Amino acid sequence: MLKKYLTCYITLQLLFVINSINSQFIPTKRYEHSATFIDNKLYIMGGLTLSTKVSANTIGKEFFYLDFSASFDNQELTWKDLTNINKVPSHFDGITANGGLKKNTLFLYGGTSNGDNMELVYTFDTQMNSWNVPAITGNVIRKTNLCASVDALGKIYYFGGFSFTDSSDVLDFVILDTINFSWGRGSIKNAIAREDYGSTILPNQNIIYLGGIFNSTLISLKDVHLYDTVNDIWTTKTTSGLVPSDRNSFSAVPGLDGQRVIIFGGLNVKENTESLYVLDLTNFVWSIPTVTGKRPTNRHGHRANVIGKYMVISFGNDYNPEFESDILLLDISNNDEYKWTNFFQNSNDTSPSPIQTIIPAPQKQSDNKIAIIGAISGSLAAICLLSVGAFFLYKWKRNQDQGKVIPTPGDDNYNGQILLIPSDRNI
């Protein structure tokens, strides 16, 4: 009986350990993916594997999110896997944005797949966790290598980009009305065609466009272009100060005060110290901000979102995931001093953030294996100790039973009662 009990116990413990390990979803490293923040969740899908674009492969159909509703350490990320419900073919350079009446629907436009029949637009209902191919009036072409901006009326703006149909950069501006499901067009007068650029929408509903490539030539960040979504007009601003080197495949987000634009990373960056720049929109002067914390490696093909008080950078190329987290966190709440940190503090979380002096390197993949082995070894050790303890308890109890003196007539302890001789019992 004891043997059966121990066998059952050990089996259950092993199943628990194995199930816990298998339930930890670890996404594939990637770049040229999409990342959209909706209802405290950063949804990520698509992209290329970490290698040169010539030999890179599409990432597969992985679809997942990172929950920002609570505080967390970016060295211990807990991803939520939604791959089993993904209906979109494997692709890269797809453009996602939030839309719909409540802006809680994920819209995926464009992208490139490996010969799969990919629809022009997909929608994902984040409340029902379901994909759909919507019927949209109007005709537009498929494009890649561009950014999406959403205005207050639920319209998504797709400017420029690369057309595989024409095999060239296109001076094209299409607008998706996510409320009425119709395509429209924006003005291209005074606009400059480009792909692989940086852009973001500002509080005044202007969209700023910076850098990128046109016909394989880098576009200077000396001049920036603004599109007024209300009046449908373009303007150009010439900047000054520490103008960033020409680059593409970088990210751009608005500052928390709406008076500045922050860019990070990109291809053709001269030095790692020149990854991060700020453009002051009051005078259009570039500067390199004062930053504390451990400076991360320059990345390109990543994505950036403003979440809470942080610029959140996801994945990308040209960084070593064995030494840096897939998620970078830049605290931009203080314009006088930004801070690279590994702790995301949710504004609704009252627990204090840990004191950080050195940002530890994230767990390597080899370390994950070691952790798994350690978990199994620790559980087995605990099982062995419990088993040994149970065995000695059993032996002690048996000796106690066997050591009892059976009184017989004539003994001093005998008083005529009926005696029950104890037998060995299973514990």
From TrEMBL:
Record bears the keyword Disulfide bond: no
Keyword set, alphabetical order: Kelch repeat, Membrane, Repeat, Signal, Transmembrane, Transmembrane helix
Record-annotated membrane-spanning stretches: 370-394
Signal peptide: 1-23
Annotated InterPro entries: Kelch-typ_b-propeller (IPR015915)
A Pfam family it matches: Kelch_KLHDC2_KLHL20_DRC7
Statement: the UniProt record of this protein carries the keyword Transmembrane helix: yes
Name used for this protein in its record: 8347_t:CDS:1
Naturally occurring in which organism (per UniProt): Funneliformis caledonium
